[in-house]
Amino acid sequence: MGNQIHIPLTALTGGPLQPSRLAAGGVGATELPPASGRTFYLETFGCQMNVHDSEKVAGVLLRRGYRQVDSPAEADLVLYNTCSIREKAAQKVFSRLGQLRHGEGHQLVGVLGCVAQQEGERIFERAPWVNLVCGSASYRRLPELLAELESGRRRVVGLDTDTDETFETEFTRRDNPFRAYVTIIEGCDKSCAYCVVPFTRGPERSRTSDSILAEVRSLVELGYTEVQLLGQNVNSYRDPSPRRMSFAELLDAVAQIPGLRRVRFTTSHPRDFHPEIVQAIDANPVLCDHVHLPVQSGSTRILQRMNREYTREQYLERVEIIRRARRPISLTTDLIVGFPGETEADFEQTLTLLEEVGYDGAFSFKFSPRPNTAALSFPDDVPEEEKGRRLAVLQEKQRQIQLRRNQALVGSTVEVLVEGRSRPGQWTGRTSSNRVVNFTSPRVPNLGEYLQVCILAAGPHSLVGEQVI
Ligand code: 5AD
Ligand code: SF4
Hints:
Elements: H1 9-13, E1 17-19, E2 39-44, H2 48-63, E3 67-68, E4 77-82, H3 87-100, E5 108-112, H4 113-119, H5 122-126, E6 132-134, H6 142-150, E7 156-158, E8 171-173, E9 179-183, E10 185-186, H7 197-201, E11 205-206, H8 209-221, E12 226-230, H9 247-255, E13 262-266, H10 275-283, E14 290-292, H11 300-305, H12 312-323, E15 330-337, H13 344-357, E16 361-366, H14 384-407, E17 413-423, E18 426-430, E19 436-440, E20 450-458, E21 462-467
Parallel strand pairs: 2-3, 2-4, 4-5, 5-6, 6-7, 9-12, 12-13, 14-15, 15-16, 19-21
Antiparallel strand pairs: 1-8, 10-11, 17-18, 17-20, 18-19, 20-21
The chain binds 5'-deoxyadenosine and iron/sulfur cluster.
Iron/sulfur cluster binds at residues 46-47, 49-50, 83-85, 113-114, 196-197, 200-201.
């Protein structure tokens, strides 16, 4: 039977304010006059980095005396933490801003994150009722920017990316009671032809290993047993302190922290995925049996056009290293269909790669031309309809592969971290390989508990089982 965890009740009801680092030198929110009595609404779009940034932003606001509310109508300050990875995601914020217009004059409105960085002060032209525009590389200045807003300045901007600082706060308001996100590196130094991230999040900045390890220890003290280390490219982590830890050494050090049961990390760039990472996984059962290794395309020609810095064969060599690990490691990926110049033959190569690797999960997208990217100047020559067809074919193939791989687990026993109830009489949780397991139990399990579950059936997206007593 697994250990129980003791997460403060507030964590389960949403919104605990927790110390995020023990070392001194936070953003200094406490040095500025508090804005007691004000309320904020914060909505987040996009990836886990954005979700975690919002947890830190909420921490900064709560420390300043703000109270979080559930709807924009109740809020003195409305914030959108935005995503610009694809056109559709970026559009969402402008429709939200349009809906807010009615409240013009009564509340302060801020646009944070990738659309803020991408559009900059142009946002004021499209939505003159916006008061704050701030990209993620400037979040360290948030307390100062908020103080300016509170003192009556109408337009406040934070758009620098030429910083070597990371966004570390004294307090973080974590939303997930089971998995705590910990940023280890911000920004991205790659230049994939389709991607806005190097522009919107700026150059790579790693946190010191001391600061990361202190945060993970404090999370264990709070009752967390699972952490997920975050970065656009965690493999290029370089400890800026004299310890000079590599990413694999950092994984080793995090895994040694007593009380931790699961350590995840995302995202890995194939080019920098070194065998030492697999050695660290082999040596530390606490490191989860899962690697997310975005491939984007199975065609070397397209990978070159994307400027991914690896060929299909080099990618497959990395996969081979992962497959030779001492325990089975689940592999997931990201894929883009319809990149400029992608022929039917290139697309076929992506389909054969899916079979060859046998992914346990895949996020797949139609190519979307983005501002400030190299691919914007390539003719977007795969018609929308054809992109849609390729996406559907790819997703159906991947569904069959996942079903096959999940069905191979029927009859085995897996360890599940219990996260909640899926329906009456059935519980839900995740394996170390990040698979969802819905299961029955002869008793009411505690949330956060680790249980052994025998797998009885499998679908493409989840497993069904019963607790082994
Ligand atoms: N169009 C479509 N998909 C994209 N991604 C990144 N940029 C684009 C784009 N311009 C996908 C990639 C990446 C994931 C986070 O989003 O697959 O790995
Ligand atoms: Fe996250 Fe990328 Fe979207 Fe920015 S653009 S929010 S980094 S997914």
